[in-house]
Model the fold of this input.
Amino acid sequence: MKNLFIAILAVMLISSVVYMGCSRKDASSIVQGNAASEAYVPPGEYDEFYAFMSGGFSGQITAYGLPSGRLLKEIPVFSVCPENGYGFSEETKAMFQTSYGDVPWDDSHHIELSQTDGEFDGRWLFVNANNTPRIARVDLSTFETVEILEIPDVAGLHCAPFITENSEYLVSGTRFSVPIPQEDVSISTYKENFKGLINYVSVDEESGEMELSFQIEMPGFNYDLARNGKGKSHGWSFLTTYNSEQAYSLLEVNASQRDKDLLAIVNWKKAEEYLAQGKANTRQTSYYHNLMDHSSHIAESTEMTTSQILTPADCPGMVYFIPVPKSPHGCDVDPTGEYIVGNGKLSADMSIYSFDKLMAAIEQEDFADEIAGIPVINYESGLHGILTKPGLGPLHTEFDGKGNAYTTFFISSEVVKWDVEELEVLDRQSTFYSPGHLVIPGGETRKPFGKYLVAMNKITKDRYLPTGPELAHSAQLFDISGEKMRLLLDFPTKGEPHYAQAIPADLVQPNALKFYPIEDNTHPYVAKGEGQAKVERNGNEVHVSMTAIRSHLAPDNIEGIKLGDEVYFHVTNLEQDWDVPHGFAIQGANNAEILIMPGQTRTLKWQPRRVGVFAFYCTDFCSALHQEMSGYVRVSPSGSDVPLMWGLNDENHSEESL
Amino acid sequence: MMIKYVFSVLGLCILMLGCGGSAEDSTNSASVEEPEVVADPRGVGEVKNVTLKDPLEEDRISNGKAIYEMKCSACHKLTDQRVVGPGWAGVTNNRRPEWIMNMITNVDVMLAKDPQAQALLEECLTRMPNQGVSIGDARDILEFMRQNDLDQVGSKDQAINN
Done:
């Protein structure tokens, strides 16, 4: 076994050297035909697809246009963003609340778009935080993060947030098993004390709001990736595991000992029945649910204290295992819902399971073993077949809806197209270099749109002009409309995109909000019109209700602020037109700036540190007179008798005028 | 006038960005198209004919005032003082009601095509923003302007036959 591992490592090294050594001269020969014009979107025209890529260590999401590869927007999700004040403004701070306190960064991995009847509906986007386990929801009418739900008692929420075909649930699993509940035990008691949880978060059909519905307590393996059934397999979830060895040190070797790890198969409709029958145990825990109010634009954070736990041993027929060749990673279900692809990273072959055969094996109790009350289905009994030697290091698979699957091979650095039914390799194309995930528009749904494939490569090396030791990751666009895949374009990406999903623009574009109606703004410090602009003192707290419109801020002269005050600038953007945000920045602010969308109110807290007169200004170029959009705050010594005064254009107000 | 207009809207951007392209290459096509000179005193837009009543309609005035305070007052005073935009005193004596409502509800097209709107932009130098006001609400604002004209200058609706 060890020899095989070393052999694979050797192949990995050699193949990397080979691929990286020869690629530069190969690059021109691999682009055929008029690739440039096929990826070219002329000025003023729109891309056909949105591709939403996770940001990995950036914690954010980026939206690209396909086929052009043009970056449309970076959406802040799990990391604070001083560029627009996300996480710094008073309204958005609560989005980062967790049971560990304020956590201003995370590692975002997998994008899941909401689905209806197994197809994208263009309403919401969900993404996971790997490090401090959370799931976020982005509203696709505003492209803003509107909700973040912490997942309790798990560690490394890599296996998330996989969606069911009517967005009933987001399924996730713990990457690192841990003591549950957490306790002070020796790491060497892993087998005895460590458990894994598979989590089901429900999604409200109307509002999209998430709620932790139940958790299933599983053996202490590493749950890696998942997919849900579709069509005939709707109601089931499939999750790969690695480290069935239950190693807790040098996993690289010790979690790679066995020939096979396990695929967990969960009947979540059965789980719902057990939940309804009261089979769940209520466990005390702590996790936070952070929700942005769509009228006040203020996030509220709520601590949740209980979780419903189902245990497989008490719930027969709810969970099964089936072996998967060595250290599986990706787990993907084809558009018909019949075939489940298990990719063993260290296996030269790929196992493809048949849902019908799995169901028959369960029916006939064709089991080889049992682990913690969970039957282990005989490997051969659930197998549709094996794709032999398709490449090295298979990771992820997507589908084109025409019976073909496309799998990335990290070690041999290629994408391989194969026939799912016939288990036959049809085409292979090199990528530059070492792809992780890939995405085909709708490639995990019941009706893929096909047409393009984007490989998200983990290693960039010589693809672009060098930028020092750190390089942007590369994405590569292939045309998959013909028999052979054709490379059209590669483009740099932000952070480290792991997974992405792509959706036709016409499912998202018509719903795009252009501004927030100011009539609907319920922020407690909104100034709906300049007449409501004011300054109020409450002890050492000073609240400035300020308005912004092209091209002035009101009030723009403020006096009577004293050292020791905490000044809250609540800025309302009075504009009611598209693409007219205003910004607000003030010298010496120890946090960030804020960008305020039309009709919205955002608040920046400022603690003056010095006596004097300080300028503030609009940071988002808004008009020909943008440079004039500014003002002054006078800061007096603590205890000074300078009265509170504010005004614009010599129309001044004081507290008596309120 | 056209040259001045283009300069005022785009000149700064072109100078600052150094893009040096011709006006036709710029992105904001609505503001650089050769304006079709239409001296229609009713302006350009959906509002073709407004029926005014006397006495003034109080419901409209109060709603119009609320919208004014929320969406217009940052730039328009009720006196004849120009701040960002012109003061409103006497506006119904100078502009037809249709022109006023088209300016409120169709401002981008008005600034591209209506000579009177363009003359105002030359004077004020800040494009009047589209404030997302419906035609019904614009009618209420008009009613509030009529009341304001009575309060400020003692007469109203003098431009009705322009």
User: Anything to note?
Assistant: The interface with chain B takes residues 44, 515, 517-519, 528-532, 547, 549-552, 554, 574-577, 580, 623-625, 649 of chain A (CB under 8 Å). Residues 518-657 of chain A form a domain with the Immunoglobulin-like fold (CATH 2.60.40.420).
